[in-house]
Design a protein that fits this description.
The protein is α+β, with helices and mostly antiparallel strands. It is built from 11 helices and 15 strands. The chain has 2 domains: about 1-105; about 115-440, no CATH class.
Amino acid sequence: MDTYLIEFLVEPKSSSSIYTTAEKITAIGWLKSIESKAILPIAQFEIEKDGWKIVELLVPPTKVTEKNFVDKDIGIEQYKKAQKFGRAFIYVAVDDRVSKLTLEELTDRDEVDIGSFHSSRNSLAKRGKCIHFDSGSECDFVINAHSVQKGQSLTVIAQDNHVYALADRAEEDGDILIKKKSIHKFSTFKGFCKYHDNLVFEPIDNYPLEPTPQQATLYAYRSICREVYVKENSLRLLSKQLSTFTAENRTKKFISDLKEGTENGLTPLLNKKKVFDSVLRNETYKSIRYVVLECENHPNTSFSGLLYPEFDFQGRVLQDLSEIGTDFSLITFCSAPTKLGWAVIFSWHESDDYICSRFIESIKDVLRSGNNLGDAIFRLIIATCENIAYSPAWWDTLCQDKKDELSKFIRINADPWIPINSDYLVTGLSNIVSWNFTNVHSSY
C-alpha cells in the first residue's frame, strides 16, 4: 500500500475549546491505502472523530515516501506511525498570543475497545441455533456446519488438512492477510443442528454434482443460510458496540451507519431464505434456475458465495443497490465436485430471472468478445466472496507479484471507504488461474 499526505484547515467543534482563539489550525494526516480516492473520506472521518470541524482542504492526497521527511523529526515519526497503524494525524495551531507554533497530537476519542470488540465477536461466533425452516423439538444439537464441502472439495485442495484463506483479522495497518487454516474449521458456522444438516444436505455432501434442480437448490440454500447467520451476528455485535457509547460522536455515527447498512442487507436476504424454505418444504425444485460451468482442470480453490448483481461483466448496471427497502435479485455461486473434476454452479429463484439471466448473459458476452472466461469467473469470486479457500500447493507456486495483485484486488473490493467501480468485473487478475470450462449445463 502507498502512503499519502493530506492537509486541512480546521476549527474546534466545541465552543469551549482552548483553541477557539487560534489564528489558524491545520490538520496534517499520513494515511496508507490501496487507492488514493479512499484517503479523503478516511481523513475526514478521523479528523471529525478527533473533535475538529473541517473548513477547507489545503493539500489534496499526495503520495509520499520516507525520503520526503529526511531531517524532519515530526514528519518521519508520523510517517513511521502510519506504516504501523495505517494512519497518523497531528494538529498545528498558530496563536496570536504566542510567538511560535504550538503543536498537539491528539489521540482518538471514544474509540472502540478493540479487545472488547473481538471478545464479543468470538462469543457470538460460539453461539448457534438451527435455522432450518422446520427447526424445533427434533433438533438435537447445533454443529459447526460447513458452508463449503469438506469431504469432496476442501480435502481435494488441502495439504496436511490445511488450506489458505483470509485471516479473521486484518493487520494493524488494515492490510489483508492470507493464512493457513484447518479444513475442520474453515467455512464453518453454527447454523444447523446435526439432524437437519445431515437430512437436508446429504444429496450434495455425499454425491457429486450431476446437476439436478434439487442440488442447485441446496447449494444456494446453504450459501444463503450462512450469510444470514453471519449478518445476524454482525447486527448483534454492532448493536452491542453502540450500547457502550455515552455521548454522540463520529465513531458512534459510523457504527450506527454500519448497523443500518447491515439491517438493509439482512432484510432482503431473510426474504430470499423464506423463498428457498418454501421450495425445500414443498419440493418445488423446478422453480430454481441454475447454470453449471464444468472445468477440466484440477481445482485450486473451493468457495461458496452470493451476490446482489449490481453490474455485469461488461460494467452495465443491473440494479441499483442504493434503493433502501427494495427486494433485490440475488444469485449464488459455489464450487462443486463432479464425477470428472469440479464446476462452478450459479443458482437463483425464478422470481429473480430478469436480473440474474442478464447477469448470466453477460458471461456469454465474455466468450463472444474473445476474453478469457476463467479469468472472468476468478475475478468475480475474488471480488465478491470472502468464503474461499486456496490450495497451498497452488498458492505457494505463485510469484510474489501475483500474490500482491490478488491481495490488492481483495482489499480494494472489501474496503468500505473505496466505492465499487462499475467495471470491477471487466478487468484484472489475468493469467493467475488456468480454468478451462469445457461443458455447460443449464436449466433454462
